[in-house]
Batch of 4 targets.
Target 1
Amino acid sequence: MTVNFASSSKRAAVIFNPKGGSAKSGQVGELQRALAARGLDIVQYTTTPEPGSARDLARQASADGAAIVIACGGDGTVCQAAEGLIGTDTPLAVLPAGTGNLFARAFYARPDAAKLVDLIVSGQPQPIDMTRLNYRGLDGSEHEQLYLVALGLGKISDAISTASPEMKRRFGKLTYAAGMIAACFNPEPITYTLTTLGATGSVDDSDSLSVSARASAVFALNALPPSMAILSRGCNASDGLTDIVALRATGFFSLLSFSSRMASGRPDNSPHYLRLRAKKVRIETDRPVSPNIDGDPGALTQYMEITTLPQAVRVIVS
C-alpha cells in the first residue's frame, strides 16, 4: 500500500533537527520545493533541546493528519520520530542530516530532496523492527529507550556517543574515526555476560543460552549500512531478531588482528569474534558502562535487557 495522499491529507510533516551534524537550513527549503512540485504541502516541526522532542512532534504530526512524517536529522532524530509513530498508520521517511546517518545509509542510496519525494509518492512503506532497551542505573532508577540502528557498549563505542558536537560539525565522520582509533590503543575491556532468549531457530522463548566474554566492545544491531554489513552477515531490520556482536579482542594487537579478518571479509574466522542472534538478550557487566543508543549516551549501568519489537513502524525505503 502506497502513502495515502488523499485530497483531505496532502500534508507532509518534516521534523528538522538544526543541531544535526550535517544539518543545513536550506535542506527543508529544498524539500518544500520538491513536495510542492508534486502538489504536496509541508508542515515543519523543529526539534528543541527537550528530551524526546522529535518523538512528541512525530506523534503530534500523525494526530494532526499528516500523510507522512519526514525526519531530517541524524540517527537519534530518526529513532525518536519512529518511536512517535508506533501504533499509527503514518509512515516515516528520512532525509539524512546527521554525522553518521547509519539508518539512512542502510536504506537509502544517498537521496536528495527530489529523489526522496519521488520515493514517497511512488514507494510502498516497509515494516521495520525497533529494539527496546530497558536498563537499571547505578542509583537503582529504571530506564527505557527504543532504538533503530544499534546499541554499543565499551570504550570504542563511547568514542561515538561522547564525541563533541562542535567537532562533528567541523570534521564529520572523521571525529568518530579519530576517537575510535585512539580508544583501540587502550580499549579497557569489560567482562560481559550475555543471556539470550528465543535465539535463531528456537520455537520456545524460554530456550536460553548464556555466555561470558571479555571484550573491548559489544554491539546489539538492528540495521547496518552496506559498508558495515560485514560486522554481522545477514543483519536484517525486519526479521524480528537482534544481532549481538562481541569483539573479544582485549588490546591493540588483538584488535589489529581482528581488523585484518574484517578487511578480508571473514570476521567469523577470528578467535576474537562472537555473534549471537536473539529475540531478547540480557547483558550484565563486571563494571559500569554507558550504553551508546543510536549515537546518544545513556546512564551508567551494569544490567540491561534488549527486546526486539517486530515490524514496529512503517518506513519508506529505496
Target 2
Amino acid sequence: MKIKHIITSGCSFADPLTDWTWPHLLEHYVKTIDPEVTFDHRGMGHQGQELIQKKSTHAIMDAFERGVKPEEIAVVVSWSGNDRKTWYITNKDYINEIKNHWGHSGGDDWDIQFCNLENNKDGIDVIEYNNKHGHYFVQYNPDGGWYHSAWHHREPKFINDYVMLTEPVTDRDYDKHNIHSLHLSLENMIMLQNLCKLHGITFYQQYYMKHTYADIDSFKDHPIINYLYRQIDHDTRVFPAIHEYVAPMGLTLSEVDVHPNAEGHKKYFDDILKPFLLEKNLFD
C-alpha cells in the first residue's frame, strides 16, 4: 500500500476502546493487505466536530514529526452531532461547578471530560454518583482540559447561555442545535478537510447519523453556512451514515440505544465503507 499510516476519529460510533467498531475493522482489513501500516485511533465518546478535528490535526502533526510523509497518511473520520461544543477549561471553580452538577442534574456516563488531544488517561480520576436517573460514572482530569457539552448538557450556566444565543434550527429532541453550532460544526469539517488538501493527505469523511449532514445540506443557503458549504469536497463524503444504514435492520445495541452493535459495524464496513474506500483506491 502507498498509505503507511491511517488516522481515525469520531465519537462513540468510532470508539477505539470497543474492539468491534469500524476503526478496528478497517485496521484488521488493512493489515491483511499490508501488516506494516500503522494506525492512530483518536475517537472518543461524546466528542463533536471540534475535538474530532483537533485530535486528527494533532495526530497529523505527530505523524509528521515521526517522519511520515503526507502522501503516506490517510485520515478517515466519522462526524458526530452538530450540537456538540468543546470548551478548554482549566479554572478550578468552573471544574468544581461542573462536578457538582454531575451528581445533581441529569445522568450520563462520560468518557474523559477535560481530556487532552491524545486520549491519554494519565492523571484521570473517576467519580461515581447516584441520582434519580440511576448510577453513573465520569472519567475526568481534575487539572482541566477539553470539556465537551451539547444541547442537553448545559453545565455550567455560561454553556446554557451559549446554547440559547440563537433559536433552534431543528425541533428534534435528541439533537437540537442553533445556527451558530451548525456553523461551527461545518467550520471544523472544512478546517480538517482543507488541512489535508493543503498537505496532500488522503481524507474521507463519514457521518454517525443522517441528521449531521442533512441539517448542513438543509441550511446550505444560510449566509453563515453557504461560504463554508461551497468548500465541501463532496467526493470525500461517505453515504449513508452508519446509523442510517443499520438501524432499519435492527442492528443497534437496543431499541433505545442507537449505537450500532458488532453486527451493525461489520455490516456497515462490509457494505458501505470498504467498497467506498476500494473505489477510491485507498488500499492500492
Target 3
Amino acid sequence: MRIRAATLRAMGLPEPYAQSRPLVIESLDLAPPGPDEVLVRIGAAGLCHSDLSVVNGTRPRVMPMVLGHEAAGEVLACGAGVREVAPGDHVVFSFVPGCGHCAPCSIGRPALCEPGASANLAGSLIAGTRRLSDATGADLHHHLGVSGFADHAVVSVHSVVRIERELPWEIAALFGCAVLTGVGAVVNTARVAPGDGVAVFGLGGVGMAAVLGAHAAGAHPIIAVDPLEEKRALALELGASHVLPADDDTVAAIRAISHGGVHHAIESVGSAKVLEQAYAATRRGGNTIACGLPDPQQAVSIPAVSLVVEERTLRGSYMGSAVPSRDVPRYIALYRSGRLPVERLISHRLRLDEVNAGFDRLARGTALRQIMVMDW
C-alpha cells in the first residue's frame, strides 16, 4: 500500500530545520505484514529528543530512515501467527521489541532485549525484515521498530501493547515513550517510596512525566530543575514542591531544601555535566538515575570513593526499565483515575508536514511534548 511518511535521508543538516528540511514528506510503499507482524493505522505520534538526536546526528542511525517511535494507532491486519492483537484493536507502540527469550527478557527486563537492540541498531524489525521502500524500490530503515511519523506502519507484534479503545490518540501516544520512560524511571528504576526526596533535572516530556510519577508515588520534596521559567511553573502545577533554575548554585540549593541531599535524582537532559550535578545532589545512600541520552562522546566524572563509603548508586534507565505489557495498562489506569494527568504534557499539536518546525521548537527547548495527529 502507499503511505505518507516523514523520511530522514541525511543527518546533521543545520538549524533551523524549517529551512533545511531534514525530514521530507514522501509517498512510500509499505509491504503487508509478515509472520508475527501487524499493520497499524497511526492515530498520533509524539516528537521526542530521541528523534531529534538522530536528526542532528548525535545518535547516528542507518540512513535513510522513517523516524518516530512514540505513537499509537489501530490494528488493520495481522500476519500469520499473531494472537496477541486483532484487527480493530487499539495499540500503543513499544520502541524496544522484546523477543521474550533472550537473557534479559527471561528475567523480566524486555527493555534490554538483545535481539530487539540489534534490530533497532540495524534499522529493521526484530525478524530482520524491512517493510518500507521508496519509488525507486530501495528499502528504507525503521526507527526503533516503529517509524511512527507516517499514516501507517508495519511492526512486529512484540512492538505493540493493546489498550482500551476510548483513549484519545493524542493521549495514548504519550504512553509509548514520555510516560513509559519518565514514570518508569521513578517507579521501576529508582523505586521511589512515599516520603522520599526526588530531584528531576530537565523538564521536557520525560522529565515532566517523572515529576508526575514522583508525585503519584508520594515523594517529598519534589524539586524540579530547568532553565525555562514556564516549565518550572508547570512543574509546580503538576506536583513539584520546589523549582530551581539550572545554574551553578543548583546542587547547593537542592541539598539545602532536602536537608543533605535527595534520595533520588533523575537526569533527563542527556548531558554528562547535568548528570554529575544530579549525582552531587543526592545524599548518602542516594540513587542517581540517568534516562536522558547524551552524545556518545560524553564521559562522566564522579568521586569514585563515594560509591563505596557513601553507598551511592548511579544507574541507567532505558524505556523506564519497563515491561510494556504490564506498565502501559497500569499507567493508563492511573491517568484515568486522575493521578497521572498526562494531558498536561502536550504543549503543541501539529500536522505531519509541520514536523521540521516542531523539531526547531524541540531543539530550542520551548516545547514539552508535541503531538502529530494524523489526518486520515
Target 4
Amino acid sequence: MAGRVSTAAVLDASGGNPRPYADHRPLRIAKLDLDPPGPEELLVRMEAAGLCHSDLSVVNGDRVRPVPMALGHEGTGIVEEVGSAVEGFAPGDRVVLAFLPSCGQCVPCMSGRAYLCDRANAANGRGELLSGGFRFHECGQCVHHHLGVSAFSTHIVIDRRSAVKVDRDIPPEIAAVFGCAVLTGVGAAMNSARIEPGETVIVYGLGGVGLAALMGALASGASRVMGVDPNPEKRKLAEELGAVGVAPDATADAIAADMPGGADVVIETVGHARVLEEAYRSARRGGRIVTVGLPPPDQKFEISALSLVAEAKTLSGSYMGASIPARDIPRYIDLWKAGKLPVQRLVSSVHRLEEINTLLDRMSAGEGIRQVIRFDDPAD
C-alpha cells in the first residue's frame, strides 16, 4: 500500500536556536513522505496536539535529540489504517498518544514499571519507533520521530503500543492533554506521591503538569494544597481550582508560616535545581518529595545527606507520572467526566500549526497553560 504526505513541524538543530523563535523559526512546516503502517503499527490522522515544555527543551538544546526531527509528543487523533497484525484498534477509533510505549518484555515492564521500558527509552533516544526505524522521509532522507509520536503532524504512523483508545465524545483539545500534562501531573500525585486523604501538599510550578498535579492532589483528598509560581494568572487559576494559598516564590521558612513543620508531600514540576532544593526543604520530617521537572543536564542540586536519615524524608523522581497509559488514561478520563479533574481548565488557547514558533516564544515567556494546536479549523 502506498504511503501519503504529512505536513509536520520539523526541527533541524537541537540547541543553538536564538529567540525570538517567531523571527528565526527553528521549526519549519514541511511536507514529509509518510510510509504506510507496518504489521504492528497504526496510521493516525491528528486532531489536536499540546505544546509541552519538553518540546521547548529539544528546541533550546536542554534535551538534545537527533535531527531532523518531526516534533511533538502530546496529542490525539483518529485511526485511519491498522497494520496486518494489530488487534484492538480499528479505523475510526480515537486514540490518545503515549510518548513512552511499553515493550512488555524488558525487566522494568515485567516488574510493573512500564514507564521505564528499556526498549522504548532506547528507541526514543534514537528517534525511532518502538517497532524500529523511521516512517517519515524528506527528499530521500529519514526524519526522526519525537518520542515515537511526532504529534505536530497532520498524519503519523506509530507503534500500536503508543496509542490508547478513548471515547469519541471528548473534545480533541481536551483529549490531547491527557497524553502528557495529565498523565505526568496527576500520575505524580496519585502514583508517585500516593497522596492520602487529609495530607498537605505543595506544588512548585503551575504550568500544565503542575496544575494537573494540583488537581490530582485535590482528587486524592488532600486537606490543603498550596501552589507556588511567579505568574499571577497561574496562581489565580490554582486558587480557582481549589488551592488554599499561593505564592510567587516560597522558601522553606515562608512555607513554615503557612504549614508549620512543612508539607506532607511536595511536588516539583519546574525543572530547576534551586527549586528542587527548596522543595526538599519544604517537606516536613517524614515527608515525600516528588520531582517531575526536567532541568538542564548540567544542573546539580545539594541537600543535607544527614537529613535523609535524621528527618526520614523520601525524594523520588517521577517519569510520566509513574503511569501505565493503557490503565491510567481511561482512569483519569473517568475522573474528568465525574468532575473530579477539571482538565478543560488547562487548555488556555487553541491555534494552527503555522503559529508554532510564536507559541514557543509564549511558552518561553511563561505565558499560557496549555497551548493546543488543532489540525482542523480551531474555530470549529
